[in-house]
Amino acid sequence: MAMKFLRQPVVEDISGLSGSTIWNRVSQGKFPKPIKIGVQAVAWIDLEVYEWQKQMIEASRGSEKKEGEADDDEDEQGDHASENESFNTLATTIEPLAA
After folding, report:
1. What b-and-e string marks burial along 16-28, b requiring 16 or more CB atoms within 10 Å of the CB?
2. What is the pTM of this model?
3. Residue whose C-alpha is closest to residue 50's, from 61, 58, 40, 62
4. Three-point CA angle 55, 56, 61, nearest 5°
5. Are 10 and 95 in contact (CB under 8 A)?
6. Block mean pLDDT (10 aa), the chain, length 99
């Protein structure tokens, strides 16, 4: 899967956080650092933002698997691939609007 650069308005939309909260968490090491893409422009790497989302969900919900449940990792990976494709399509659609 190709990486994409996400500008701040898109990151705000994905994360549900305000710009100032994003920057506060970046400085605290609690949110991915952006990279410079120009003299006065930064962007976040999409995969890093998605991984942060996954970590927030796991921290919020904890382990939801009950003892004795079979691992469905193969099925989940297939589901996530489909979700990522859908999200990448959405991100591609949103990016030009945010620029």
Report:
1. eeeeeebeeeeee
2. 0.62
3. 58
4. 100
5. yes
6. 94 98 98 97 98 96 64 54 52 46
